[in-house]
Beta-galactosidase
Amino acid sequence: MELPAPDASPDRTTSTADAPAHARADAPVHAPAGAPASALTWRGRRLHRHGVPHRMLAGGAHYFRVHPGLWRDRIRRLADLGLNTVDTYVAWNFHQPREDAPPCFDGWRDVERFIRMVGEEGLDVVVRPGPYICAEWSNGGLPSWLTARDVALRSSDPAFTAAVGRWFDELIPRIAALQAAEGGPVVAVQVENEFGSYGDDQAYLRWNRGALTSRGITELLFTADGPTDLMQDGGTLPGTLAAVTLGSKPDAARRLLAARRPDEPFVVAEFWNGWFDHWGERHHVRGADSAVRVIEGIIADGGSVSVYMAHGGTNFGLWAGANEEDGRLQPTVTSYDSDAPVAEDGTLTPKFFALREALGARGPVRVPERMPTLPPARVPLAHRADLLAGLGAVPAPTSTGPRPASFERLGLDAGMVLHTAHPRIPEGEHRLVLTDVRDRALVFCDGTFLGEAGPDRREFPVRGAGAVVRLEVLVESLGRVNYGPGLGRHKGLIGPVLVDRRMVQGWDSTPIALQEWTEAETARALDAGPPATRSGFAVATVRADTPADTFLALPGSGRGLVWVNGFLLGRYWEVGPQVTLYCPAPLLRAGENTVTVLELERLGTVLELRDRAELGPVEEYVEEFG
């Protein structure tokens, strides 16, 4: 799903004035001797920028969730919202999906270009390098090749810190070179991320802080945790600014921090003015009036805030994460709109104008309220190949062993694995049991579809004739857990497959790296026809005189994936709430565009182009602690 590198932008050339020298009782303990004074400091419960009282008005926007051709547009929309700072995570697995290749910082992964671009638009930058980021992003940003190991994640386990240290060796000097002290826009860097809701390894937090400073970070460091004693106890460090994350009750959070850190300013590192969605639930929204009341409570008395999300963007490809509740997976949808003031497609929402007023913005809104869109249309969807035939048309190495190979054993981050075995099934009725499937599996016996295995079904009746059968199990990952103790959980056929009580042994396991498929590989899958079932690969041709945004819908289809000109747009699923997939203009070209659909259940006959998003029935949602 890689795109060519966009045109380079000039470096930020406007230098920030040198910070005045002043002896500060509140000087952070992390500042190395002789290091330049950081742009942001605090004194008397007030944040200062180069010695001048300052209120940070930030907004979350992730470069990895926005097409790079739209970075500047979205940054300008955040500036028009009244923000003076852009806040971004850095997703390690996005830059280094494979251990045997160095981290990539080109094209869509050019985080330095994104940071410079923010500076060119006159805004500061807060960087949150993790290595764990949560963010409803697959595996919380940790590479699956790391979490495949027997390693204590997010801890002082040397096996973990050594791997993070190698990553930071590549990343942090790039961020350090863009700090305010070097003439760049980076004014603050976060230590880990909401660690207090995960663990209490203070040695790890101190290591993380030292890993930043030893690699050149001299700007303000801070931690961010929920506003409870438990979370603040686990996630904060002496001498490092303690910020909070919240969706409501800012006065209670301010009192908590004032009691614990009486000299520090009140900084909300994440204000959840919206929320994310899971498949099978409702689309979460938050009224503008509710969001404004909390914003006003935060910025009162000199408080600073980062609106999360100010612009959410999209979980393109298979990067959406998942949560777990009572052992059940809750996969996150493709859209990361998050009911943000700047919508997924850049639209300025009513919340945008309400928050803009609350933030005190006075200048004109320079950007259009909406981006241009293609006219609505219905395009025929031509079924070209069956599911297994299409998947098998794209070559992939096969691993053979006595048990099914997990995604981790195959080195596969996301996508599917096709497991094939040839058990002998005695005459009569028997039970085929998949003891542990993560996350869903389509089960075939001698080419006949037996059904789908998932959280509510793991057994299938099979009739044997005393002969060897061809058993095929196609396992799909729906997203790696990004929060809580389930972080790093493995994917695939984890437990044994049984015929009655007897284990099936002798498996061929073929990884299907859908996220890495090229346009040529989707074309090979389409050419594997003709189809004889209702699932598989289909194609539609979309014509565009001038590329513009559009929203794709697949009425009548069940669940699957969509590529546009070889780029994996993301997952669709009739369980909702999301109905349309956002296709940004830079993915299209003038003339004919190929839309490829991989349908896992039942294929409809039409692809619809719509002129606005449809994210499903809504539910008012506010996340509260306590």
In short: The two ends are 42 Å apart (CA to CA). The chain is about 20% helix and 30% strand. The longest helix spans residues 158-176.
